Amino acid sequence: MRPQRCFSPDVKLTRSRCRLACLAAALLALTTGSALAVDQVHDEIQVYNADINEIGQWSYEQHLNFAPIGQTKPEFPGGFTSNHSLQGTPEFAYGLANWWEVGFYLPFAVSGTGEFLSDGAKIRSLFVSPDAEKRNFFYGINFELGYELPPFALSQSPWGLEIRPIIGVRNKEWEFIVNPIVDLSFGPGGEADFLPAARLARNLGDDRFIGLEYYSDYGKVGNILPLQQQYQELYAVTDFKVKDVDVELGAGYGFTPGSDRLIFKAILGYAFPVPGKNKDDSGGSNSSMTMGVQPRPQNPFLVK
Questions:
Q1: What is the largest CA-CA distance in the chain?
Q2: What is the rounded distance in angstroms from the CA atom of residue 298 to the CA atom of residue 215?
Q3: Could you tell me if 292 and 248 are in contact, meaning their C-beta atoms sit under 8 angstroms apart?
Q4: Does residue 77 have a pLDDT over 50?
Q5: Pairwise CA distance, residues 76 & 81, whole Å
Q6: From residue 54, how far is each of 101, 113, 256, 274, 296 by CA, in Å?
Q7: Alpha-carbon gap, residue 137 to 157, rounded angstroms
Q8: Shortest CA distance to 214 belongs to which of 48, 82, 47?
Q9: Are 179 and 200 in contact (CB under 8 A)?
Q10: DSSP per residue, 183-225
Q11: In angstroms, rounded to a whole number, what is the distance separating the alpha carbons of residues 138 and 177?
Q12: Domain boundaries in the chain?
């Protein structure tokens, strides 16, 4: 008797199931692969310290971040990759009250192939405890609304809102600040991500700080990514002044495949004189520059 060939209904059913199983496995592999990359947009790398401009005062910061060894897998098909890229943004801020500051950004990037890319625009509103730079315990919250362009965001969900609480303690020698950030994106494919950041810095006096800053991206709130897929970065930073310009420099190392392995950051900040006020007057912000900080009056770089 000839052996049974694979034309029987049972064999056909088995083949059909096998094809379905292979298709499901392929889809799972594609889905898993795309999830290995978290957000790679890092135009502003800083911890906010609740220090703001004086009433009527403008300040300017220039953020620059270069990843010689960054991520090569995009967050989504056709998305931006950080490897060999330069990212940054100019930031303008204005003091409205001793507890309120507003600002806006024009983020950009130069890709690893040398292409200049605009990433839309962002505006922010920062509320803090009055005279936060003079307090041992300080707090605040920042709301930042942004509109991103491809390839930094999906075309169907370009709008995003960052909610950044600020909680910190300091004395004459040390400061410790945490920013438990929640990042919201709207529209189809929108989600809420958890991106906590923290800073521990030693005050050396004369507007000089050294310390460590921690940045992360744990993925969706309620559906945290596996550790290997998270963004986990630790920076060594230093802050100092060159005449009236605040300077912050840092080098970061990524501990997971979802992180930039090596990245450098720089922030240059200048607080313009307050109209009608003598430069030697001591009112308003007088805090020393802090790593990864946003420049604030008299001390723009203290971690906000």
A1: 107
A2: 26
A3: yes
A4: yes
A5: 10
A6: 9, 41, 40, 7, 8
A7: 37
A8: 47
A9: no
A10: EEE-STT--EEEEEEEEEEEEEETTEEEEEEEEEE-EETTEEP
A11: 9
A12: 1-35, 38-271
Of 85, 80, 87, 75, the C-alpha closest to 113 is 85
pTM for the structure as a whole: 0.80
38-271 CATH fold: Porin (2.40.160)
Q: Checking DSSP bridges between strand 116-118 and strand 192-205, what pairing results, if any?
A: unpaired
Residue-wise pLDDT for 260-299, tens only, equals 999 999 999 999 999 888 765 644 444 334 433 333 334 4
Cα-to-chain-centroid distance, residue 48: 11
The three-state (H, E, C) secondary structure of 77-125, written as one string:
CCCCCCCCEEEEEEEEEEEEECCEEEEEECCEEECCCCCEEECCEEEEE
Q: What are phi and psi of 13, to 5 degrees?
A: -65, -40
Distance (Å, rounded) from C-alpha 199 to C-alpha 174?
10
What is the C-alpha to C-alpha distance for residues 45 and 206, in angstroms, rounded to an integer? 24
